[in-house]
Amino acid sequence: MSEQTFPILYSFRRCPYAMRARMALTLNQVSVEIRELILKNKPAEMLLASPKGTVPVLIINNEQVIEESLEVMDYAVTHGTNSILKAPTNEELALICENDNVFKGNLDKYKYFDRFPQQTQQTQQDYRTHGEVFLQQLEQRLTTQDFLFGNNQSYGDIAIFPFVRQFAHVDKAWFDGADYPHLKQWLDNFLQSSAFLNVMKKIPCWQIGDAPTYFPLSEE
After folding, report:
1. Half-sphere exposure of 118 toward its Cβ, with a 13 Å CA cutoff?
2. From CA 161, how far away is CA 75, in angstroms rounded?
3. Do residues 76 and 85 make contact, with C-beta atoms less than 8 angstroms apart?
């Protein structure tokens, strides 16, 4: 019998796109060989497989290359030994689309304000206010249920919470004082979960010749 070959995941744990991919793999118990990166020093092996150079990248059987985080999540849904996450509904996909295409833009301008030319006279607080439109929508959803699409965590929750986490950490003191009680509880539930703690464990950055590191990581 030939030795089992695990998919290879190139990742960076603090990237929200990689974070949601890793959460899905963890929750649905999909084993991969993980290669943690420094984004400023991407290995040639990754760039050969995925020239666009973003994470996550999942390589299956040294042939199929998955370059989008939602597609990695889809892979976890269809290949997991656990089935905590199911395929997303159209409602979930619509909110994820708003997160990825509207909220993420405001988040980037809020977090990396000094990188954007001030042609529109927008302040950093203006971009935070723009981002809050989405936070308010999430808060409203969470007033009557524990998660965004009901009382159980879903694909949509996992796809969105890493970006809310990043927004909250731009100015943690402000977020802690902001009037989003349900959103804060929802976010804290994920940040304190065993799956998230596993995802965020520090591992050495991968170098060619290293012995494989398998993910999800051991609980030891």
Report:
1. 9
2. 19
3. yes
Torsion of CA 108, 16, 193, 206, to 10 degrees: -140
The closest alpha carbon to 44, from 207, 162, 189, 188, belongs to 207
Per-domain boundaries in the chain: 8-84+197-215, 90-193
* Residue 149 to residue 46: CA distance in whole angstroms: 35
pLDDT at 217: 85
Residue 214 bridge partners (DSSP): 33
Integer Cα distance of 28 and 78 in angstroms? 9
> Could you give the angle at which helices 155-170 and 69-79 cross, rounded to 10 degrees?
140
Please, what CATH class does the domain formed by 90-193 belong to?
Answer: mainly alpha
Phi and psi at 134, nearest 5°, equal: -75, -40
Asked if 102 and 110 touch (Cβ cutoff 8 Å), the reply is no
Band of residue 171 on the pLDDT scale cut at 50, 70, 90: very high
Q: What is the pTM of this model?
A: 0.94
Topology at the third CATH level for domain 8-84+197-215? Glutaredoxin (3.40.30)
Task: Give the residue from 14, 70, 11 showing the smallest Cα distance to 36.
Answer: 11
User: DSSP state, 67?
Assistant: -
Residue bearing tokens 């993420």 = 104
In this structure, the chain runs to a length of: 220
The pLDDT of 124-139, averaged and rounded, is 97
Burial of 122 (0-12, 13-18, 19+ CB in 10 A): middle
User: Is-contact 20 13, C-beta < 8 A?
Assistant: no
